[in-house]
Amino acid sequence: MVTSYFNRLLLIAAGLGFGAFIHSAIFWQDASLLRAFVVHFGGGMVVAGPIALFSLWFAKNARSNGLFYAGLVLGLAPVAAALLPLSFALSLGLALSVACVIIGGGNSANTAPIYAKLSCAVFGMLLMGGLWVGGAIGRVNPVQDLPARSDAAPQSPDVLLISIDTLRADMFNNPLAGSDLNTFKMLSERGISAPYALSSSSLTLPAHISMLSGLDSLDHGVRDNFDPVPDGLPWLSEAFLKAGYHTAGVISNGLLSRDIGFGSGFEIYDDSEVPLRGDIRRFVSSIADSSWLGAAFPQSKLLKALDKPLFRAYRSHRGKGERGRGARTNQHALGFVDQLLATERPYFFFLHYLDPHDPYGTVAPFDMLLEPQPVDAALIAVDPAHGVMGETAIEVEQALQNGSDAEIDVAHKQIDFMRRRYAEEIMFNEQCIAEVLAAIEASGRETIVILTSDHGEHFGEHDLMKHGNSLYQENIRVPFLMYGPGVPQGVQTSQQIQLIDIAPTLLELCNIATEQEFRGMDIVDLASAEQDVQRQHITIDGNFFSIIIGDKKYIARWDEKFGVVLGDGLGLFDLSTDPHELNPSPEITLPFLKAIDAALERDSYQEGQVQSDFQVDMGHQLGYTGE
Question: Which domains does the chain have, with CATH numbers?
Answer without folding.
Answer: 2-136 (no CATH), 158-275+315-528 (3.40.720.10)
